[in-house]
Specification:
The chain is an alpha/beta fold. The chain has a single domain, classed as Rossmann fold (3-Layer(aba) Sandwich), CATH 3.40.50.1000. It has ten helices and eight strands. α1 packs across α4, α2 runs antiparallel to α3 and α4 packs parallel to α6. The chain is globular, with a radius of gyration of 18 Å. The N and C termini lie far apart (45 Å).
Length: 232
């Protein structure tokens, strides 16, 4: 008998790494604009957003406040309504991607890599977005829907989705993949855990903590600014 060769793997964070913002922010803003979330929702993250724009606060603080606002307003929203808004948001913004990571995913796909996406954005938005860019498997936040077709406010599999390294190991085990020759792309210190596991970690537009870690460990750093891509 012959051993079946395992497929090489490429793992990507999505928000801020492929998509040039956050899918969750886009979706939350749309839910507010359409009156599905109350207008007061934006007040939850307004200060953190202003602090980040003014370079007086971190992006992590901003996005965590968006998560807080989103999850605090989701309970009772009909799944069908939510899914429709998510689909419209993806249709409008799915091409707002970085050229470097867009081209890299296409090259890796041609080279036979298995493309794995991991994000903390809702899976209802991740699935159509990642499908457009050729991903084979997508992990994102899954929010429970009750028998009445409305969200219960509960997030499922929270422990797993919060640990990207655990997700990577699970995918390798269940999908017949190998870490030999693997590639990983992330943009913040939260991605260090899975970047440590791949053969070629790429820190794309990294925040200061990931950048410092990359420099200490000799990881590749890539920055895309306007129409120029810098490789360090």
């Amino acid at each position: 008998m012959y051993d079946i060769p395992m497929q090489k793997l490429a793992i990507f964070d999505i928000d801020g790494t492929i998509f040039r913002s956050s899918l969750l922010i886009e979706l939350t803003d749309d839910l507010i604009a359409k009156g599905i979330f109350p207008a007061s929702t934006a007040k939850v993250y307004a200060r953190a957003r202003d602090n980040w724009l003014n370079r007086e606060g971190s992006y992590d603080d901003y996005i965590m406040d968006v998560v807080k606002a989103f999850e605090g307003r989701l309970k009772g929203v009909p799944h069908k309504t939510f899914a429709k808004v998510a689909e419209q948001a993806v249709a409008r913004s799915s091409k707002r991607v970085y050229r470097y990571t867009r081209d890299l995913t296409q090259k890796l796909k041609r080279d036979g890599y298995y493309l794995l996406a991991i994000s903390h954005s809702p899976k209802e938005m991740l699935d159509p977005f990642c499908r457009q860019w050729g991903f084979d498997k997508v992990y994102g936040r899954i929010h429970e829907v009750g028998e009445d077709g409305r969200y219960t406010g509960k997030t499922l599999h929270q422990t797993l989705i919060d640990d990207k390294a655990k997700i990577l190991k699970r995918a390798v085990r269940t999908e017949g993949l190998t870490l030999k020759g693997s590639i990983g792309v992330g943009d913040s210190e939260a991605d260090i855990r899975f970047l440590k596991l791949v053969a070629r970690p790429i820190c794309f537009n990294p925040n200061s903590k990931l950048y410092a870690h990359a420099k200490r460990h000799g990881w590749q750093v890539v920055v895309e600014r306007k129409d120029v891509i810098y490789k360090m």
